[in-house]
Amino acid sequence: MGKYLVHHSGPLSGEVVISGAKNAVLPLMAAALLSEDKCVIRDVPQLRDVAFMKEILTSLGAEIEEVEENTISIVTEDIVSTEAQFDLVNKMRASILVMGPLLARKGRARMPLPGGCAIGARPIDLHLKGLEALGAEIIFKDTYVEARAGGQGLIGDTIYLDFPSVGATENIMMAAVLAEGVTFIENAAEEPEIVDLANFLNKMGARIKGAGTDTIKIEGVKHLSGAKHTVIPDRIEAGTFMLAAAITRGNVRISNAVPDHLKPIIAKLRECGVRIEVGDEYLIVRGDLGPQSATDIKTLPYPGFPTDIQSPFMAYLTTVEGASTVIETVFENRFMHVSQLRKMGASIETAGNKAIIKGNASLRGTQVMATDLRAGAALVLAGLAAEGVTEISEIYHIERGYEKFIEKFRGLGAVIERIDD
Ligand code: UD1
Questions:
Q1: Best probe residue, ligand 1, of 89, 125, 163, 185 (max atoms within 8 Å of C-beta)
Q2: Fewer Cβ within 10 Å of end Cβ, the chain: N or C?
Q3: Using CA of residue 19, residue 251, residue 321, residue 417, what is the dihedral sign?
Q4: Predicted TM-score of the model (pTM)
Q5: Ligand 1 centroid to 164 CA: how many Å?
Q6: Average pLDDT score over residue span 309-337
Q7: Which residues lie with the beta carbon below 6 Å from any ligand 1 atom?
């Protein structure tokens, strides 16, 4: 497995074009299992997680073709297996998203309990509670979980989620589209990726209203057809490059972005003193216009501050004037980047889910480890601002979720090498 060597770089300048969203494309691909017709998905980022999802879908009976660069077609004439294989599911938590479609189309889904980034316990109880409310029987055996629809198939119902889980909302939505009757998901997740999935499902013939609010109504239909869809831009990738501009005190144009999806990041960066010009589908981030100072952040479900930007933002906060507080409320174990940032000279104290970051750190390059996808991105940002060379190992985490990551950074003037062990 390779390593990144990140050299002190900056100020970054130029334009970066944001790819399709990882967290949108994975559920869209799973949703294609709901129809026997051809689905075409455009702006599909080339990522390890997308490759894993392709493998899972193929093992279930889908035929996937790369129509052109970043466009795939998925045809699932028949589901040949209702069981996702352990070695595939273990690599990626989002593989749980095939459960709803398998159950809806075949009345049965069997999955090993999923893996993914080590950022907390990440149970799937809310997914299962929702599927159970639609009439599925849930059976645990060894490390597997199985859901079985009764003789009449799935039946619509009202489901209240104890927490607005993104994955649970998606899974339940995909199961409910082919259920008999009407389903309401209350306290649903409101993330843009949920709206993107609902738009795709509606193009396939589903009847979903309210996606993007806390109550989603799904009227079941008998059959879904194929559809064509373009994935929304990746708001987390956009946020990461906004922070790259800020931490290097650079001037970067972020193209193919939806500024509406980035409101909390824009607001917090402006509070710190970063100038941001917001266009229709772009942002210009000016970290080069004057001093930058501390702010406080609390992660929340959308439209609150995204947990996936917490670690990159923390890396940035080590470089500003004054002390900042970061509170993580979405995941219980998402401060693994703290010890790595400390190795680079950051002064960060943690107590439970709260971190206090002293600014004006003199970051210096050393050997660090990407403990998860976004923690890895945080270390790349810190490496750009640090003196000397930062050697980042376990970069497969980063490559799970960022398309052409170092190429894009190099395009902005960063000096990053990828070396094989
Ligand atoms: C998705 C994103 C991930 C992001 C997260 C929160 C994808 C592929 N991944 O993950 O990048 O960080 O949303 O924005 O879209 N929970 C339960 N029971 C459940 C499900 C979740 O307790 O059944 C808890 C989790 O442990 C976590 C919280 O709910 O503490 C949020 O998880 P969830 O919104 O489900 O995140 P994911 O869909 O896994």
A1: 163
A2: C
A3: positive
A4: 0.97
A5: 9
A6: 96
A7: 23, 26, 93-94, 120-127, 163, 165-168, 189, 193, 307-308, 330-331
Give CA separation, 36 vs 73, 94, 211, 273, 335, in Å.
12, 22, 25, 52, 43
* pLDDT tens digits for range 52-107: 999 999 999 999 999 999 999 999 999 999 999 888 888 888 999 999 999 999 99
Catalytic residues: 117
Q: What is the pLDDT of residue 116?
A: 44
Helices (H), 248-357: 263-272, 310-317, 336-343
189-218 b/e (C-beta count within 10 Å ≥ 16 → b) = bbbbbbbbbbbbbbebbbebebbbeeebbb
Contact 132, 160 (CB under 8 A): no
Q: Which atom of ligand 1 is found nearest the CA of 236? A: 11
Residue nearest to atom 33 of ligand 1 (CA): 165
Which tens digits make up the pLDDT trace of 118-146?
Answer: 444 568 999 999 999 999 999 988 878 99
Residue nearest to atom 39 of ligand 1 (CA): 167
